[in-house]
Amino acid sequence: MPAAPMPAPRSEPILSARGLTKEFFGFKAVNGVDLDVYPGTIHALIGPNGAGKTTVFNLLTKFLNPTAGTIRFEGRDITRTRPADVARLGLVRSFQISAVFAQLTVLDNVRVALQRPNGLATQFWRSNAVLSRLDARAAELIEAVGLSSFSDTLAGDLPYGRKRALEIATTLALDPPVMLFDEPMAGMGVEDIGRISALIRKVAAGRTVLMVEHNLNVVSDLCDRVTVLARGEILADGDYAAVSADPRVREAYMGSEHA
User: Fold this and answer.
1) What keywords tag this UniProt record (predicted)?
2) What pLDDT, on a 0 to 100 scale, did the predictor assign at position 98?
């Protein structure tokens, strides 16, 4: 029995894929995926191990090129666009493994991230006096992710969950309309999961979020829409209540009480 359909959206998708396919030496890791991500939503890609979630994510962010199919972002065909150019358009990915400069402070990490949108990306030689004009915005971002008391702490000394918060701050520095999170809760304890979930909900205000996530409690609490993948194809799509009631989804998760 198919999942109940979602209500008709009021806008065009901000990110979409049609017929998205990726073959590796004859094996179709992703096969004919049609995906729509709508503005202002938190959208999750879920599925059992080997379902193709990470491959889809890599295709959407252009770290892989599709064997077939098209990808559009804000109405523009980005199917063959380079990853750096996609990021400049505003489709910004935060990686599963925290990507911060361990030997820089929290403040300096955010200042570095702010340099690109402020035209200073290649101007590391500029004086602190010039770069300090970024401090006010950096402080705002640091406060937004709950790291004000860690501003002068080296990123390498932060607890794991706080590093992920810093990564979100550096992603926010690019002011992207769409943020993509690859397993943001991976490796976290309960306290950190609650903190980062609340942070994603906060930063999603006025933005669109697409996330790959294994923690189905997080997905059910946080996400407006859920796409379930299995064996490289879309198994179900809708809100969490609809997809979790789909017997095909339950079977794919081998009877998981959450699915």
Assistant:
1) ATP-binding, Nucleotide-binding
2) 61
